[in-house]
Design brief:
Four Helix Bundle (Hemerythrin (Met), subunit A); 5 helices; 168 residues; single chain; elongated; mainly alpha
Length: 168
């Protein structure tokens, strides 16, 4: 188990948890249900905390894969740049969520207003995390991002089959 493996395993958690939590915050606000809002805020804090090791493991993951054949340094850089924005957005929304949770615990009126800010911020963080994951997938799975690559790969496979099993 290396840093690339851990990065790939953990990356799915904040990428999925953040948008789910954003939807739960919205449901809590619509239903005016404090318990649902508290659960959603807690989910966002967890997503933000989980994003930190994912981000930190990214450097080690880069070291593992950057010298492999077919790996583009340009694609890695694009992924890294989008990850920087994603970690800042996730940290910001996680921090605001933690403040809102403290406000709920203290019974402060401004917690509800913070939930609105958290919802919008969580949407922004979700888009950023999703885009970062998309760019990360392009590092090792170019076939998933271009129909032309898939067609070319398919043609090469067909040529190999034809050369090993020529038709009579």
């Amino acid at each position: 188990m290396n840093q690339a493996y851990l990065h790939i395993v953990l990356v799915h958690l904040p990428v999925v948890l953040m948008p789910v939590a954003a939807v739960v915050v919205l449901i809590g606000m619509i239903l005016k249900n404090r318990s649902v809002e508290v659960v959603a805020l807690s989910m966002i804090v967890c997503a933000a905390v989980l994003a930190v090791p994912v981000f930190l493991l990214g450097e080690g993951a880069e070291e593992v894969v950057e010298h492999l054949p077919g790996i583009s340094e340009e694609v890695i850089e694009e992924h890294e740049e989008s990850a920087e924005l994603a970690i800042w957005l996730s940290g910001a929304v996680g921090s605001v969520s933690a403040v809102a949770l403290l406000g709920y615990a203290g019974g402060f009126w401004w917690s509800l207003a913070l939930c609105r800010v958290v919802f919008v911020s969580a949407l922004a963080a979700s888009v950023s995390l999703g885009y970062t994951a998309h760019r990360g997938g392009a590092i090792r799975h170019p076939e998933a991002y271009s129909a032309q690559v898939g067609e070319v790969m398919g043609s090469e496979e067909d040529e190999k089959k034809e050369s090993t099993h020529p038709e009579k």
